[in-house]
Specification:
2 copies of one chain form a homodimer. Chain A has 5 helices and 11 strands. With 247 residues, the first copy, chain A, is an alpha/beta fold. In chain A, the strands form 3 sheets. Chain A has a 7-stranded mixed sheet, with helices on both faces. In chain A, strand 2, helix 1 and strand 3 form a beta-alpha-beta unit. In chain A, helix 1 packs across helix 5. The longest helix of chain A is centred in the middle third of the chain and has 28 residues. Chains A and B meet through helix 2 and helix 4 of A and helix 2 and helix 4 of B.
């Protein structure tokens, strides 16, 4: 079996501003559409890797601006969710999806148990261990921590247009979402839309937020609002103002 | 800084019957009262290490019998909760307790951040990674999994006698606890006693159960019922019969 990552390929977690002074820790599991070289294009056309199926368009840009403005630590994933979706546990059918939205992913079809484990061990565990160790550092220095996972969603899903523009997702811990409910005037902001914890899509906040007793939130922005760099900057500023008032 | 574990000391997780055919995966975080050699006795008298503060008396014996009777995988922790309590996140004051029940733990007083991180990285992360990888194996082979953590509690806590004999603890997922509620006739069986998730004592089921979407339960037996080997065997048989009916 060849290694999942080549010796010159970086580990999954890229930590920006590790010593940031904000209580917020931003996590962007779907920052990148890059695939490990060993996977080629997973049988997809190059242009399909620019779609939402491969990554959360705009989420990295918004996250970097927010990290910069509020001095937050930010964890980016260097690899595409098509290689391994780090916001899904290995039990979840979407962890290494054979179909994403309406697109078949040829390179994910019929993976053997050992091929799946190579991705789990090459991407999933190192990514979450890096987050865990960042949180450990803060814990032993008694620093306050609030987890915010940064996402974007596609305006049209399986042919149906979505009107929601900002989603505030939570599982058991609604406190931060409630505080932000009216922070985005003029934008259609909803709780637990377009997804919710019931869909099994809040794995990161479950392991690093709920299980550690840390407040957490999963933030979703419709990606047509943040496709352009200027819009990413504007949303970074909007979020910085919103979080300043509530954290 | 010396290493937490010497080269001749085994890693924290001891996995018994890894390929067991039962859907149950048993986890015993507090199986052992052994301390890594580098910690000496943490300033305690030898005999204090035989108390509940150091480990869950009888839990390993019961777990081994149950594992044997139902052919379950079983994960034992080789080190005492006084070194690191693997059912607590690093944020929790009880993870490396300075005081346990009424006993001061001199060797845990005033640990520096780097001393704490050495325990987190030497015990906590390897223990939970080993469990995670056991669960990954089952996931990629599409095996059904139910997590049961195996504990015992002290009959007298801070001078107050406890009448509860069996505790069935759950957080969001009550299904398995409800099924077992009447499985131990003649024993005082209660839900979410003598502890509950609100006390932050269900870290293992949170990360390996809830976050993975797997059913889970934390089982607590009062330790005076399982101090002797014969009683451990009898409780292994009693639990095997109970779980056979509900899993």
């Amino acid at each position: 079996m060849t290694d999942l990552l080549a010796p010159d390929e970086a580990p999954p977690a890229l930590i920006i501003n590790e010593m940031g002074t904000s209580p917020l820790v931003l996590i962007c599991e779907h920052a990148s559409n890059r695939l490990p070289k060993s996977m080629g294009t997973l049988g997809l056309k190059r242009e399909d890797l620019d779609r939402h199926i491969a990554y959360d368009i705009g989420a990295e840009g918004v996250s970097r601006h927010l990290s910069n403005l509020l001095d937050c630590a930010l964890v980016l994933n260097r690899y595409s969710r098509l290689a391994y979706d780090c916001n899904r546990s290995p039990e979840h059918a979407g962890a290494m999806p054979e179909v994403s939205e309406v697109f078949e992913i040829p390179g994910n079809k019929g993976l053997s148990p050992s091929e799946k484990l190579a991705r789990v061990n090459g991407i999933y565990h190192p990514f979450h261990l890096a987050i865990g160790q960042l949180l450990d550092q803060r814990a032993v220095h008694k620093r306050r921590t609030i987890i915010v996972t940064m996402h974007s969603f596609t305006p049209v899903f399986k042919g149906i247009a979505r009107t929601v523009e900002v989603g505030l997702l939570f599982d058991q811990d609604e406190s931060l979402a409630k505080k932000l409910e009216h922070s985005f005037p003029g934008f259609d902001t909803r709780m637990n839309e377009p997804y919710s914890a019931k869909d099994g899509v809040m794995h990161t906040t479950a392991i690093h937020g709920a299980a550690r007793g840390l407040p957490s939130l999963m933030l979703e922005i419709r990606n047509d609002l943040i496709t352009k760099e200027d819009d990413q900057r504007a949303w970074g500023e909007r979020l910085a103002a919103a979080f300043k008032g509530v954290t």
